[in-house]
């Protein structure tokens, strides 16, 4: 790349989603220079671009709250500003609580970040090259708004959710095309009649997820609906749209007469040949995003037409928003120094280097169903070692972390990844202050540095 501007940062973050922004916010508040390189125009990742909702994972199965100071403070502020309904009991009894956050919450975070002069935000970026020597990253070349940059940093963080660094560096990763979870395009529907849906839940419980609690739905005035199984059986197996789904899934939005519908579904294996995904060309991810968007958009209109026609509560409804980007639940994740396993999350293992706490059940969206399994009552620890490999100054956070497919399906939830971002910020602060590489860190320092506990 020619004619580039040099950015000199302490930490360079790739991706401004759930985990990346909490890491960035922590570090800039401590005075470190953070450059954040984001592919889209917005910060916020899945919450902002994919309409992912409701945020979940703040309580263990036995209802202990996972506390981490920065994330907790943010949640309180959202609640106070009416961007959040706070933590409410999960009416599906799938997990213990859910935390409905307005999809505009990320704008509050964006405004906080942009107040800092030591925060350098590069939206609409395309990464061109990552330079490294002896397993140490030196610099990142990218283009943002048509201008070329070279970002130099002491530490680099891949928070892209798709392990973008693996396109530029020889990084080992997990990727299993046959078992990769579905992608979805989430949409919002307004003018929905709450009472008519509640009537269906009460009159035909066999049509809904067996743990649904209609009384809780009524008392909280919050719809969590996973069902209309017979209707789904009739209409949600549509080969021409590559759609196969056994249920309609939707949740009250925070303005109550709207719902967020998470029912579209597309599998990578139906879309693309393995060679195309596995090659080292970043255009393969662009191809996936573009092609899947086209198909899933058709699914959105189709699914809403079925809902309007066959569910009384949707008779006068209309689509009020469609996510800007397809939500990719699972893609590549790193093979790190430790891989979190099925056993760890069932046994409820905590580690000397725990930096976040997982709480969500095993939740795998495959074929036309969902595999679910409860995890340990007390939750489990996510160790720092899942976030590093042989690169001395490269960290993997968010969906990039090292986990088998069962553990991945649990720890990928928003709460665990926000908290992971915050605490990784603390660890990097320690590394920067003491001029050490993250991979050389003594775990006793992690225990002292990290601030996450159950209460
Ligand atoms: C369809 C779907 C439904 C879900 N449902 C729920 C739910 O109900 N509740 C819940 O709590 N969680 C849910 N999740 C999980 C959760 O939202 C995600 O796992 C979580 O947001 C991942 O956080 P992250 O930090 O890894 O990445 P993300 O939040 O995905 O952010 C990654 C960021 O990196 C950017 N990026 C990507 N490539 C590049 C690149 N080349 N260069 C620069 N930037 C790049 C992206 O644009 C994005 O901003 C769902 C996820 C999906 C996809």
What does this structure look like?
The protein folds into two domains: 5-178 and 331-454, FAD/NAD(P)-binding domain (3-Layer(bba) Sandwich), CATH 3.50.50; 186-327, no CATH class. The strands form ten sheets. The protein has a five-stranded parallel β-sheet, covered by helices on one side. Helix 1 packs parallel to helix 4 (105-114) and helix 1 packs parallel to helix 13. Strand 25 and strand 26 form a beta hairpin. Helix content is 31%, strand content 24%. The chain has 14 helices and 29 strands. The structure holds flavin-adenine dinucleotide. Flavin-adenine dinucleotide binds at residues 14-20, 37-40, 45-46, 50, 52-57, 125, 127, 159-162, 164, 184, 262, 327-329, 398-399, 412-414, 417.
Please give the structural blueprint.
Layout: E1 5-8, E2 11-14, H1 18-29, E3 34-37, H2 45-49, E4 55-56, E5 66-67, H3 69-80, E6 88-89, E7 97-99, H4 105-114, E8 119-122, E9 125-133, E10 136-144, E11 147-152, E12 155-158, E13 173-174, E14 183-184, E15 187-190, H5 194-203, H6 214-220, E16 224-227, H7 229-235, E17 237-238, E18 243-244, E19 248-252, E20 259-261, H8 268-271, H9 274-278, H10 283-310, E21 318-322, E22 327-328, E23 333-334, H11 342-347, E24 354-358, E25 362-366, E26 369-373, E27 380-383, E28 394-396, H12 405-411, H13 414-433, H14 443-449, E29 453-454
Parallel strand pairs: 1-11, 2-3, 2-12, 3-8, 12-28
Antiparallel strand pairs: 4-7, 5-29, 6-7, 9-10, 10-11, 13-23, 14-22, 15-20, 15-21, 16-19, 17-18, 19-20, 24-27, 25-26
Bound molecules: flavin-adenine dinucleotide (FAD).
